[in-house]
Design brief:
The protein contains 15 helices and no strands. By secondary structure, it is mainly alpha-helical. The chain is flat and about 70 Å long.
Length: 309
Amino acid sequence: MTTPAPAIPDKTATAPEKTRSQKAKERLTSPWATAAAIIIAVLWTIPTVGLLMTSLVPGQYYRTDAWWTVMLEGNLTFENFGIVLFDSFGDSSSSDPLLGNLINSIVVTVPTVVFPLVLALMAAYAFAWIPFKGSGFLFVLIFALQVVPIQLALIPLLRLLGPENLGIAGEFPGVWLAHTIFALPLAVFLLHNFIAQIPSDVIEAARVDGASHTQVFFRIIIPLSLPAIASLAIFQFLWVWNDLLVSAVFGSIDTYPLTYPISNLAGSYGATAYLVPPAAFISMIIPLIVFFSLQRYFVRGLLAGSTKG
């Protein structure tokens, strides 16, 4: 009785082709990618650490010694933060402390993140899943508004919000409305691209079960769009928080954010320049907190749709 010969593996057979998501995962998890990410993180962190340490240098050492020299001498202090927040320029000026401007930044930024997100989310859902006449033309028109420079719209919008019309220029509602108007075109475009990629089977199944557009919006669209919402919220928060032009044009001394007094904080001939680093660090610590809090959603939102396949 003869035994069957062992099967010879077919060398011509090829492994199943990898999907785009698998290829992207391999590239992002390679040792070279990890090393590059570490290097970028270190380079990104060095200026932040340097700013923090410089903000701890007392005024008498600011122009003469580096922060590491002052640190070795044990003269670093958090006193500059107290001066900036509660005394501003100290005895050399009668300017108000920056705590009020910090509160103004929060009051300006939070609504101008929420308002455009809510409006853009509803508009994006309508353009993606509610067919109506002229939707294509209207969406292209909204997309085209992104190419209009903000500077061209400042004077017409200021006249609309001024005392001769709505009368809210120089107040918080005027600043909120201006930021919302400028943010809507990009927000609608980005959210529409994300919402349109939601599988149609999910939407159709909900509609078959009797769900209305409102129920689909709150129970399906919003939960599935959280990565895109978080990513856009971070971008809008950073843009509004660091904005000076819109707040200066549509605001007033009662609404100026933190960026406005920082630009004048150095004083005459740089006499109080040592207060600029602590003020700048205060202005960046809150965006850092927001970014790291939403980092997980931010990365998912950036990669959404890029590894499909």
